[in-house]
Amino acid sequence: MFDFGMFTNVFMIHAWISGSVIAILSSCIGFFIIMRSSTFIAHALPEAGFAGGASSIFFAVNPILGLLVFTVGGALLIGRLEEKEHEDVATALVLVTSLGLGALFLGLTNQYAEGAYSLLFGQIVGVSDDQVIQTFLLALVCLVLLALIYRPLLLSSLSKDIAKSRGIPVRLIESLFLLVIAISVSVIIPIVGTLLCFSLLITPSAASIYLTSHPVNALVTTMIISLIDIWLSISLAYLTTWPIGFFVSIIGTLFYMVGRLAHYWKNSKTANAK
Known about the structure:
single chain, mainly alpha, ABC transporter involved in vitamin B12 uptake, BtuC, 85% helix, ABC_BtuC-like, ABC_TroCD, transmembrane helix, transmembrane
C-alpha cells in the first residue's frame, strides 16, 4: 500500500520544499557553469564549503555562517588569483587548501563521524524550519543576482571578446558569478552534502546541452531534469531507506546517458538523410 506519509510528515514536507528550491537554483547556476566550462570551480567551491561546515561544527556556530565565510572567501580568492595565475592553478590551490582545513577542523572536534557524514552527504530528511527559510532566502538572493547579470553573463559565456567589444565589464561579471556560485553552494551543501552538490550542479546541465542548443530551452530542460532528479531521489530514498545521494547521482547519470544517446541518434538520422 502506498505510504502517504511521504507527503504529510513534517520532515518530508521540509525535504520536498528545500529539495525543489535547490533543484531550481542548481539548474540555473549549472547552466552557466557548463557554458563557461567552469566545472573545476564547481568542484572546488563545495570543498571550500566542506571546510566552512567543519569550522562551524568546531566553533559551534550556525552552519550557514561557516559555509558562507569559506565559500565566498574561496570565490574571492579564485577571482584574485586568476589575475596572476592560470584559472586551473588558482582553483586547485583553493581546493587543496579547503580540504586540508576541513580535515583539520573535523580532526579537532569530537563530532567527527556525525559531522563528516552530514557535510559529505547532507541531511535532506533532517531539514528544520529555520533551514527551510534560510535556504529559500539565500536561493532568492542568488536568483535575483543571476537575473540582474543574465544578459552580460550569457554573452561573456559565449564569447569574452564580443562581450568586451560591447563594453561589458567581463571581469566584474565573472566576479559576481563566482559570488553567486559561492552563495548557491552554501545553500545546497546542508541539504545534499559536499559530494552531491557537484553532481546536482553539473549533471542535469550536461544532459540538457545534448537535448537542445537553444540557451533558453537548455535552461528550462536543465530545470526540469533537476526537479525530476531530486523528486525521484526523495521518493525512492523514503521508500527504500537507501541514501538519497545514491539516487541523485544515479538518476542524474541516467539522464546524461539518455541525452547523449538522443544526440547521437539525431546526428545519425541527419547524416543518413544527407
